[in-house]
Amino acid sequence: MNNRRLHTLLFAVQLLNLLLLTQTWFSISMNLNGANTNLGEFDATATYALAMPSSLLETAAVLVAFLVNGLAKRLVLGFSALATASLALWLGIQVSNRNVAGLDGQLDRLTGIAKTHGIDSLQVSVTFTPWVWLGLAVLMVIIGGWLAVNTHPWTSKPTQANKGSSSGKTESTIDLWEQQRD
After folding, report:
1. DSSP secondary-structure letter at 32?
2. What is the largest CA-CA distance in the chain?
3. pTM score, two decimals?
4. CA-CA distances (angstroms) from residue 30 to 10, 63, 97, 126, 179?
5. Among 10-19, 132-141, 144-153, whose mean pLDDT is lowest?
6. Rounded to an integer, what distance in angstroms lies between the CA atom of residue 68 and that of residue 83?
7. 63 with 15: CB under 8 angstroms?
8. Element (H, E) at 82
């Protein structure tokens, strides 16, 4: 697979990851009077305020990498891979700890208890979506890092035949003019 296709695959996976951020990550329920009451289902954008802006920045970096070449492309793809790795590490820790502190305002409205203090029967269940997102983020880091290290120009370098004369001597513009007149 060539670099252009890998770059396109990286962009497609990035778009899929943006979509996964808006899917259900957590289902929160509460035990009230012996009955289990579902308080709601929440996505990553509602739970973690940093998730969507960071992912949009990474997507923009991948798009910019389509427009630039050489060292700039390597730097942009490296930045995107580093930002994706950082976000994946942070979100992986947050999800594995079931940290839903970002939902305190919404849970306050749903339960009537400020900052969820005093709620001891709150049950947070994690769906499969964050783990799929995390797996795709690791794939993006691998592809982006590989492209940052192994990016070669997609245009061919001029060969000796394309440069003109096959003799090793350099010719002045006057010599070229004289050759055209012959």
Report:
1. E
2. 103
3. 0.71
4. 40, 43, 18, 15, 89
5. 144-153
6. 19
7. no
8. helix 71-96
